[in-house]
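Appendix B, Record 12. Input sequence as logged:
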Amino acid sequence: MGLNQEILISVIIPFYNEKDYFDECFLSVINQTYKNFEIIIVNDGSDKYFEEKLENLQIKHSKKVRVFNQQNKGVSSARNFGIKQSKGEYIAFIDADDVWLPHKLEHQLEQIRALNTNFLHSSYFLIDEDEKFIGKFKAEKLNYEQLYKSCDIGLSTVLIKSDLIKRHLFKNISTKEDYVCWLEVVKEIKELIGDQEVVMKYRSKKGSLSSNFFIKFLNAFKVYFIFEKKNFFYSLYSTFILSIKWLEKSYKIIYKYPEKIEFTFISDINQIEFEKSFFLSGLNMASLSNIDLFYLNSKHIIFWPDGYCAKYLISDFVKTPGRKIISDFQLHKRINKIYLCGNESKLQKNYLEKKFHKTIHTINLPFFKNIKQIKKFKLDIDDNSLIILNISTPKQEIMANQILIDNKDKKIFIFCLGGGMPMISGEEKIVPENIEKLNLEWLWRLRTNTFFRLKRLLLTSYLFLLKKFTNYFDKINFKKIN
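Logged structural output:
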């Protein structure tokens, strides 16, 4: 690594009862490519369970992590306490539900020193609670006048000189506390440098204070009226302009700034080179309706054309049923172990053992109600293993990506086959050829579990058509592996 590792960075995480996303947040910090940092976690009056969890984390990472407990005083108080306890030359912030990309600190420290500035903020991806890609925010250089009109700084992307932030602590306000802080900072240093590099995934959560429009509007008014000391009517006018700018910014995040992402697809399963980890999935209406779940994982996924809807997106469309993928597949020499993962099935296990002449190791997955449960489910998989998943889209793809994350130092190859495995193994009847040629498999499958399948069909149809008519697929390019 070319960057000098002598500079200490203090990373401050305010924490309050975050049960769903903190583990991922913490791992994104502890696994940074730049290693000279301390993590200061300020527990703002969380329940006893979380207090014990944070204490265990401190014991496990005693050289990196310091945990402080205080009575519940709010996020501003927690950040300010962390700032006062910090030892680093620079300070970075991350909220307990956000995720840094691995190069965040290294890249920003290089930039902040090369540009000879005391403040840097960067671009970020916006995702929702289910990991769906919403859009991209692009950071820009801001002076006071520009910042006054629109708060265009992602808190969890900021890297700031320690002595600078210690002169401008966060104010006690339920939201917009960072906006007040940055307005004070920009008055001192004249401009806030914005960096085009994406360094974070910001999570938009329903029901959070920052998502409540009325509270945001009221606190924006307080920013101008109380902290910027503008008169009542000018503060009201400024709040209105800020709201208009927010709508404009939201449009840019969702529709203007995201780059076109490239996915790969294959027509012959045996064309895949098993050189790096991947997961394979069928390109059909179900996967296309959930493509925003895979947007940020495009490098890990390979598609095969499985449904008629894929014809709208790839030029040389040749439909290949999931059962044919596994029946045509010749076991690669790199693969040492095979897992059948998902719904337990003796018929599927027997079919795979007969086909591959290997012991099949089964992992029975629980029924996942939501994506949060999938992300908490950990699997330790042996290196150079093939995993065959037999649950439905999009749960199988989310599970596959989570397995790759949890086994990032290994080569893991995952086939998301869904209903293909029950058919090829004889558990379910194979779609009649005449039905398949008419692309009416979905209608044929409604004969069993009718209500469940119809509900799922209506949802995926709605999501697919919504993306089609809002030109969402313009963001995506499909490249064939030759």
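The two ends are 35 Å apart (CA to CA).
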